[in-house]
User: Fold this.
Amino acid sequence: MTRAADPHLAQPVADAARPDDPELAARAAELVRDAVLGDLARRVVAECGVDVGLVGVPEPLPGSRPDSEGMVLRHWAGTRADLLHDVPVPAGLGLGGRALAERAPTWVPDYRAATTISHHYDAAVAAEDLYAMLTVPLMDGGTVHGVVYASLRTVVPFGDVRISAVGTLARAAARALAGAAAWSRERPRKAAPVPPLTPREHEVLRWAATGRTNPEIAARLGLTCNTVTGYLKSAMHKLGVRNRTELALAARESGLVS
Assistant:
């Protein structure tokens, strides 16, 4: 027996007074996120007729590139062991990583026998005695707020009713997370003055913000890699950032790139 997600889940803080302190607002949004995702894992098990519910939260993964995408399994319900707890999952690996990369639900009737996914997590899946598995990304527009897993300890195809039930919970959770994120954003404030960049620094920065590598930028602009590195380091110093990810963010926030 399944039922629709609680409509109140979609607006957990819409009518609440936002704290004036940005750090307090961000912490409050984090608490809301943990509550929503923990509840999602439990409700998948309680309402969708599955044995185990897991939720992966997008996070930077240790040792990964700054521009790479991944998540960590932070919430669970119905597990018997802890091998699937706090597991890092890069985009593309396993069933959940595939859902994260493709921005679409994925499912298999028998995880361990599936030929359409990688098998990096077979030992943990076997320890939980899991077979059928469904993963659904928590999407709000183009933003992925996480991936929910619904799994059974038997080999069965996922029917439309169960897929729809998990999808309904995922959509409600995504709306709640989007609302919490919007609620916690700082109120607009006057941007701090940015030291002027040279035309070359600006040009190199513009290409770096699109994700181009130093060799790609060098080839496009007819420069050496060392010269491109020098321009990026100078731009980082002027903007007060430490790496390319912070540089791209600071450039967008300051209006240097769109």
Notes: The two ends are 48 Å apart (CA to CA). The CA atoms of residues 140 and 190 lie 28 Å apart. Strands lie at 52-58, 70-77, 88-90, 106-108, 133-140, 143-151. The chain has a mean pLDDT of 84.
